[in-house]
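Support case: user asked for a sample of complex input and structure output to validate their parser. Sending the pair below.
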Amino acid sequence: MATATSPPGLVTITIDGRPMSVPAGTTVFDAARINGIAIPTLCHLQNETPVGVCRLCVVDTGARVLTASCVRPVEPGLKVETQSPKVLQARKTLLELLMSDHPSPCARQEHSRDCELETLAKAAGVAEPRFAKRSVARGLDDSSLAIAVDHDACILCDRCIRGCDEIKNNFVLGRMGKGYSTGIAFDLNAPMGNSTCISCGECMVSCPTGALTNKGVAGTSIAPSGDNQGFDAEEILQIPVFKGVSGTFLELNRGAIVKRRYGAGEIICREGEFGSTAFYIVEGAAKVSISTPIAHVKTQGGARGFFKRLTSTLVDRREDVRDEETRDRTIPIDASVDLNYGNPVASLGPGDLFGEMTCLNFYPRSATVRAESEVVAYEMLRNVLDIMMKNKTFRAQIDANYRERALENHLRAVPMFADLSPDFIAHLKQTVELQRFAPGEIIARQGDAADSFYLVRIGFVKISENYPGGEMVLAYLSRGDYFGEIGLLGGGVRTAMCTALDHVEVVRIAGSDFRDMVARFPNVRKGLEDVATERLQANEQRLKTVHSVPLDQFLSQGLMEAQSLLVLDLQKCTRCDACVNACADAHDGVTRLVRDGLRFEQYLIATSCRQCRDPLCMVGCPVGSIRRRNSLEVIIEDWCIGCGLCARNCPYGNINLHPFEVVSEDPDHPGRTKAVVKQKATSCDLCTNLEEPSCVYACPHDAAHRVDPKAFFADVIGQSSSN
Amino acid sequence: MRIDRSQRTWAIASVAIFLISAATYFVYTRSSIAGPRGGSTIGLTFGVAGFSFMLFAALLGARKRVPVWRLGRAQAWMRGHLWLGMLSLPVILFHGGFHFGGTLTRVLMAMLIFTVVSGLFGAALQHYIPRVMTTDVPFETIYDEIGHVRNLLLEESDRSMEALCGTLGVRRTSQEETQRAGGFTAMRPMTTTTKGGAAVAAAAEIVLLSEEESAPLRRFYLNEMRPFLERPAERRLLLYDAGKAQIAFSGIRTLLPARAHATIDDLQDICEEARQLQKQRRLHHWLHLWLLVHIPISLALIALAAVHAVMALKY
């Protein structure tokens, strides 16, 4: 109620001895602010509903207790003290309490020195809090590529929640937990990166501390170059597919997205190179191709003749058919199209995104992209790409491109889907669902009901089975591979655990569509059943092996699962390296054997592929050219681009790169060719084409042997247990 | 090459050849009026056989140069080298009727005896040393990598010390991430009795001693351990000897608080590894250096034997 002396609708109050009139309904905090009196606060922001949770804005109104000024409306004749000793002491105590739980300096204070809590605490003279820190850490959430979440630095002011709900209307953020474990939560307490958060950045902008901070990605700036057109957030936001992206975020990530212009013939990215960016073509046409010969390494010659020596040459699968070699017609690459095995060249145009795997997972480039006409493209780092992929418009366009251009190839690449009629493919194109999974997220759990069939579009999926003694990795599936058919065709239960190894996107075909498909196309059903039976038998065989082996040590080293091993008897070996020299001699000077490895009793298991339980070499291959045969042996397909990632990933050093001189197109002089050295990954195959491996044949001391591990170790274990 | 049961066939065949040769020689000496002579038919037969054995033995080196050629397994060549090379001595003695003849033949006999004896010495070394190396050097690495691994050990120990005692003020040679010998492989032995995986070490507790507390260890490290890691071949150094090292580390443990003992254990392990690498180097030299004598002499023997054969047949 207004006093008689106040103008209509205004209320007269006194703050710190200064009389003032403010509109009725104004809070004490706002009244003070309007009249130039600053009251410290942490939870209150001008454009958000006041909630009065931090209590830092307490003032003395003469009542029994101090009141939070941000939620206290003015009353006629109200006398407010904002700087009385009692108020200052209360604020200081509050700050001290907040600081006692605050990881000082927090990320924000460390980077920009503007953590509001620490600034206020310093101003209030709070040095070392007298109170004990919280004993239970609330932890970090590093799952988002754009925003780092430090729950320990959160003061529960709710500014982020109100920003998300009231300002952006996204309703992703909320509170969770009770007592000391209270914190903010995304969706139903999902990791931020896996939640429905679109990374608009509003929460981060609202946060007064280092609880939500803009995340730095390694090398957050794209290196400047001549074709770098710089950054203009306004211009970017004008492009239809960028609509809805937070301008604030783009500004904060200045340097993480640049516009580039490429002249005709210029190379945008080169196969095998490591990178951290993706490209989105705005204008122009580009050619995507693989320049490494589509062939595998074959060692041949000399085994029968006295003086003919062995040579390693490149041959393709038409000339040399290997056991269980894939008959895929397409080569999966990191773009919206796949390449043809016979002619690995395709075109990219406006609206195409390529380099997602490189950008999100830091895998090497899978192919060379060259501008065919003048190309304008945006090059972006993973934090920007992540935001883009969460943007509905952008996402819809990328998905539409995929459905239009690559989905059919992917489906047709599954051998048994080759017979699907065009109308059913068209139907699938409309009905399939594209799903994303964050690293470590479980796509299907062993024992769950099987309701879908999946085709891997991006990333790597780990297929594993639990058995007594641990987890056995059955396969790593990459782009173009599929899973889920065993559960659907069998008892309706998932037989293995399927986990996203990195940023994974899958095409999900619903169970109903799958059943419709197998009913309509008997050949598809038969093909799938055959594959399912084969996979089940292979799994059973592996599990049988596992159960029959008593030694965890062998299992953990993958020794028992090998089909054959190269074993050196160290009591006979004189360390003359004749084996290594023989291996090099047999492979054009490139040895695939290092006389080093795991040691068991007197035996050295020399480095040669041991068909590990967890074949890490397969993770990250940008073109999916390394895989397992049913026998678990590694096979490197013809389209290996020689990037060397598998060699780096193999913990046993069993994969080598074999250089070959080939004639290739000269990137600096289009239309001309020149001799270049290209590499192909190879691994020791124990000279399976020869009666005896070269290393064993050349060992003068009878120390090297190729053995069947089960028989060999059973013998060794028997001997040692009898001793 | 190990002399074991797998050599039985060759051993029996060699003994048989020897006995036949000896019997033939015995009959020959009895029946020959002028006594055994190298120029007689039987003497020449012994000479050709002995030279063939020597030649075959010498061809092992050539065989090793073409390891991929399918000329028979290298181990068969090695067995032939051993047994036929050994047989060549009695056969050549039968050839000369146990007379050493003129200067050339005397030199040839001396060289043959030296070659065979050095070969037997080498065979004995190759029989025993691999076993010693396998049992005594569990941290064995590739021979050429020993220097590199030693550098890594030195860096690892420097880091451990600095983590415990603060800056040492020593100059580092590289910033490489350190790993124990052989990196991931480490050639550490697994045994049938090993329980559980030992591949992953528990995270170390961070301990930093005061200057006063760390003084004895700092002194020991700078005066004894670091010099040893830099020059592990120096016998006069305290840590060269495993027994003395054990005593020294036990003494150091008593001077330092218990929270530093984990690091001291680690330092002791590093010294042990350095000692083992030194032992590996020494054994490796024993395994292979005799060849520096055996091979040149045997090649010279073949060359002179050829000269002797040509001269004997021509003149």
